[in-house]
């Protein structure tokens, strides 16, 4: 005998957990120094969301300049940071929403809408950065956008996925709350003659 139905109420913490994962990836992106790095040796260029560092081929010390001196640097950092702050707020709201016994589904849909706003802010920051960086900062050697920049995009992809789930979750309100009876399917009619 197999019980079919959406047992989401037992796994209701999956969406807040995914938002927590997006927050962790966002922290790595904000703090990481691997937004842009030299592709191969000698490693002469390295950049974060906040600063760009270069060094000579024989030099061991990095010479850094702040990207906050550029308007586009402030714009990229501000948009990504605003998206991150709203993401933290959405995480707190999701924990509150799934903690209460009677789930308010309009509240959940509002969290989904805010997550789309988060994704928009993060995408704007993640697009401004490489376009303006390559236009205005002199690059030395072969460079690539690296791991911290990738964490920024990974956080954004998780946020977009969670936004869709939060917006669509109210469509399955009865299944999530357990208000419908499960449907039982049997493998063969011979094993359950009492159903006829």
Automatic annotation (TrEMBL):
- Identify the Gene3D superfamilies for this entry: 1.20.140.150
Q: Where in the cell is it found?
A: Cell junction, Desmosome; Cell membrane; Cytoplasm
Which Gene Ontology terms describe the biological processes this protein takes part in?
apoptotic process; cell-cell adhesion
Supply one GO CC term from the record. cytoplasm
Annotated protein name in UniProt: p53 apoptosis effector related to PMP-22
Q: Which domain of life is it from?
A: Eukaryota
Membrane protein topology class: Multi-pass membrane protein
PANTHER family from the UniProt entry = P53 APOPTOSIS EFFECTOR RELATED TO PMP-22 (PTHR14399:SF4), P53-INDUCED PROTEIN RELATED (PTHR14399)
Family statement: Belongs to the TMEM47 family.
Organism equals Calonectris borealis (Cory's shearwater)
Q: Does the keyword Cytoplasm apply?
A: yes
Q: Which residues cross the membrane?
A: 12-32, 77-98, 110-131, 151-172
* Keywords of the record: Apoptosis, Cell adhesion, Cell junction, Cell membrane, Cytoplasm, Membrane, Transmembrane, Transmembrane helix
């Amino acid at each position: 005998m197999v019980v079919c139905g959406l047992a989401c109420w037992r796994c209701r913490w999956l969406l807040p957990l995914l938002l927590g994962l997006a927050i962790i990836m966002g922290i790595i992106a904000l703090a990481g120094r691997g937004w842009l790095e030299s592709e191969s040796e000698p490693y002469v260029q390295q950049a974060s969301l906040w600063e760009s560092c270069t060094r000579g081929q024989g030099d061991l010390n990095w010479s850094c300049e702040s990207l906050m001196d550029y308007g586009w640097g402030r714009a990229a950092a501000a948009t990504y940071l605003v998206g991150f702050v709203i993401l933290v707020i959405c995480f707190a709201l999701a924990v509150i929403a799934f903690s209460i016994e009677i789930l308010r589904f309009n509240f959940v849909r509002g969290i989904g809408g805010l997550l789309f706003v988060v994704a928009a802010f993060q995408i704007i920051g993640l697009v401004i950065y490489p376009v303006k960086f390559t236009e205005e900062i002199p690059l030395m050697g072969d460079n690539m956008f690296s791991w911290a920049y990738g964490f920024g995009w990974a956080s954004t992809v998780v946020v977009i996925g969670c936004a869709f789930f939060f917006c669509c979750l109210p469509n399955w309100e009865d299944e999530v709350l357990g208000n419908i009876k499960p449907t039982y399917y049997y493998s063969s009619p011979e094993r359950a003659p009492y159903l006829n």
